[in-house]
Amino acid sequence: xxxxxxxxxxxxxxxxxxxxxxxxxxxxxxxxxxxxxxxxxxxxxxxxxxxxxxxxxxxxxxxxxxxxxxxxxxxxxxxxxxxxxxxxxxxxxxxxxxxxxxxxxxx
Length: 107
Hints:
- There is one protein chain.
- The protein has 2 helices and 8 strands.
- The protein has 107 residues and is an alpha+beta fold.
- The chain has one domain (4-103).
- Strand 4 and strand 5 form a beta hairpin.
- Helix 1 packs antiparallel against helix 2 (77-88).
- The longest helix has 12 residues, at 77-88.
């Protein structure tokens, strides 16, 4: 199944498909330099639905996966980088209707 990815920053930068982990690491480095008001970025994977993983400057992460939304605070930027690696590897399965039936974003 085909898909698209993009990375968007709160300060206005966008990276179009394909997004990779180097793009994520660059976004982390850049957003550590911006003020708190604009300290966030997100990566989306667009298949049948849009799946989003958003990181904030305080190392909180929001994942919008299917109909579910998860929030977690991670201790280090390395953990966030690993989470994005898993997300970009698309470690989730959809049924024939595009509904997510399983995902694994364990850090």
